[in-house]
Automatic annotation (TrEMBL):
Native source species: Alteromonas alba
Protein name: IS21 family transposase
NCBIfam families in the record: transpos_IS21
Cleaved signal peptide residues: none
GO molecular function terms attached to this record: nucleic acid binding
Domain Integrase catalytic: 103-279
PROSITE patterns, sorted: INTEGRASE (PS50994)
Coiled coil: none
Record-level GO BP terms: DNA integration
Cited Pfam families: Mu-transpos_C_2, rve
Amino acid sequence: MGRKKAQALREKAILHGWLEPDVVLPDNDALATALEENSQVLIKGSSVAPYADKITKWYEQGIQGTTIHQALVDKYGFTGSYWSVIRYLKALAEKTPVPTTVIEFAPGDAAQVDFGAGPLIVDTRTGELRKSWIFVMTLAWSRHIYAEFIRDQSVATWLACHRRAFEWFNGVPKRVIIDNPKCAITRACYHDPQVQRAYGECAEGYGFLIAPCPVRDPQKKGRVESNVKYIKNSFVPLKEFRSLSDANAQLKSWLLSVAGNRIHGTTKCQPLERFTEIEQALLSPLPEVPPEQAVWAKVKVHGDGHVQFEHCRYSVPYTLIRETLWLKASDTMVRIYQKHELKATHARMHHQGSRATVPEHQPPAAQAYNMQDPQYCLAQAQRIGESCHVFIKRLFASRVLDNLRA
């Protein structure tokens, strides 16, 4: 007997009260009858029995268990435990069949996206095996697949995968159906999910609609989930990968030669054939210039007038010290905004510990101090007069600065 079945039997025993110390165990016939019938039949001795109709009604309205338990306590003086309510709700969930509907898509209408755990692949920089992930985008009508192995699920990686997927298909679907990964959705909600700002800009640039699945309802993108399993079970086993790039080269070849030309179990057609003959022409064209891919981050201005992003520091006007700003970082540029007003622009730095400072961002006293090098002093002396200039030049000739002590 496996763990799942043992757990299910234990829950049935708890539900029927068989594990209570003063309860006489049923005989074999009664036990068999209880196990054959839907295990969610509520026994008369349960503390929730008098409130079964109310709990069932609330359950059907989608009210959570904690709220139901508190309502029973407040309105009816319920003395049973929270877990007795949860056991009954689990019983209702198992008792109530969940109908499913096959969702049909028109050619070019939608793509479904998902992540899956990938194999351990050698990091060529360190020689160590590192975890990988599989990014998969499936066109919902043709079932044609784009997939690649990646090292992380960051926003930047998510955006880059979308760009490469659209270039693979040479077009953009009208909708991209996703789960609720943090790299795409900052707050999952059935009615009003909050989309990552960078992903929203990506969707606007390519012209597709972001369509998150309802919370805890990933079945809405079952086609891509089945393809994640297909890749993990059919491509990954018995393969040897020398590096991440080698793994992706092998995967792309397999997608075109094997996955694309298989007879799909549902459509009874070859995904690549359906794609090339019908769906590809119905995708929206790629933009002439790929949209800028940039990530957004909230940053705090430190006392030295700099913000920090990925271990690099960038200056902003000193008047913004202690303010919270928005930083937009592409591969080459960093832009810093106060609300919608651009406050600073820098070349993107990638070496940890780097510092970019614009002199005009510093307070006037600091700007004046930084300007007082020998050339500045000589120029000022020249403006005062020839005698002053000769005197200052003589001072610098004696290398007086070298004799200064902190």
